[in-house]
Specification:
Blueprint (H helix, E strand, L loop, with lengths): L21 E7 L5 H11 L2 E7 L2 H11 L6 E2 L3 H9 L33 E14 L23 E3 L3 H11 L9 H14 L3 E4 L5 H6 L4 E5 H10 L3 E4 L6 E8 L7 H11 L2 H11 L14 H4 L8 H6 L1 E2 L7 H11 L2
Helix pairs in contact: 4-5, 5-12
């Protein structure tokens, strides 16, 4: 998932490890503050070679092509952890080398896509819900996913460029599980989306808040972190958890099986999991981080933000994205058809 920060490498670059003192990181764009990269190098002497991707599909194809080589840290979303593990591309984590493991939020550990966190640790987690410009859109008209089909929103609507988000929304509207593998349910969800497609101005998962800030669109899907950042630039941007239930996801840290600098990878994980560094991630990127001790390092306005930290009732009503098994091919087929 995702997620305006400096990036040190060309997106999509296939990197080979430079030396034993270089850590090769493959992450979403705009998803790691430059200040943390510089701090890590200053503290450890390990240089960071940082490359980015714009979708899980791109990341997965690259790792398959490289057979798990070329990177030491990768940040896939929930359901792609299990996919990479099934392909034997991941290194089983040694929890004894992760100092802050006991401080991580237990409610987001041991997910179905990686039981007992054998291969992954939470990096950041967030939600997909609704964002709108209140200078243009009447908020009383936007309470749930169903409202995106309002004809008044045609031509000013954004959806994330993410098959699981978009299909998940349609599945929720049908009363189904966001991780449905039922062909009939997926067909119904696709047909529902076909009726929305003519109203969509843009699909964007690179920086979905940007079209909202610039006025290219005024309403649609947003991740909570991008909505938070949009509000910093334009307070008229609002974020709404849909009454039918939000979609929750998690991005995760993994070490590829063939990573050449595993010791540096563990050093980076331990650095990122320090409470003060977790707090930097939250403040600069706008998503919740897993180390509960980070809360003590956050100002009240962020600690109490319902955009970054959804209320309990919102979490209880929402659904977490997980693996869809072999049904992934159906999702991809419908996605290609929808975006034609």
């Amino acid at each position: 998932m995702k997620k305006n920060l400096a990036v040190i490498a060309l997106a999509g670059l296939i990197c080979a490890p430079v030396s034993a003192t270089t850590l090769n990181v493959y992450n979403w764009s705009e998803y790691l503050p430059q200040s943390l990269i510089e701090r890590f190098t200053k503290e450890t002497g390990i240089k960071v070679n940082y490359a980015t991707f714009e979708s899980n599909e791109t990341m997965y194809a690259k790792l398959k092509l490289l057979d798990g080589k070329g990177y030491d840290i990768v940040v896939p979303s929930t359901y792609y952890v299990s996919k990479l593990a099934e392909d034997n591309l991941l290194h089983p984590l040694d929890k004894t080398q992760i100092a802050a493991f006991s401080d991580l939020d237990p409610t987001i550990l041991n997910q179905s896509f990686d039981l007992n966190n054998q291969y992954s640790l939470p990096y950041m987690w967030g939600s997909t819900a609704l964002g709108y410009n209140s200078d243009v859109i009447d908020g009383s008209q936007l309470t749930g996913w169903k409202d995106l089909w309002n004809p008044e929103f045609a031509g000013q609507l954004i959806l994330t460029d993410d098959v699981r988000d978009v299909m998940g929304m349609a599945l929720i509207l049908g009363g189904y599980d966001v991780n449905s593998q039922d062909p009939q349910q997926l067909e119904q969800a696709y047909q529902k989306l076909v009726t929305l497609k003519p109203a969509v101005t843009v699909f964007n998962s690179d920086a979905p808040h940007v079209p909202l800030i610039t006025g290219e669109v005024n309403v649609g899907m947003q991740w909570n972190g991008t909505a938070y950042r949009a509000q910093q630039e334009n307070p008229a941007i609002k974020f709404v958890y849909p009454q039918e239930g939000a979609i929750f996801w998690m991005d995760n840290i993994v070490i590829p099986r063939e990573a050449e600098n595993k010791a540096a990878a563990y050093a980076f994980i331990n650095f990122l999991m320090k409470p003060e560094n977790q707090a930097t991630l939250v403040q600069e990127i706008g998503y919740a981080a897993p180390n509960l001790k980070a809360l003590a390092h956050l100002p009240n306005e962020i600690r109490n933000s319902e955009i970054i930290f959804p209320p309990t009732q919102v979490k209880e009503k929402g659904q977490f994205l997980g693996s869809v098994g072999s049904a992934v091919s159906l999702y991809e087929r419908y996605w290609m058809e929808l975006k034609k």
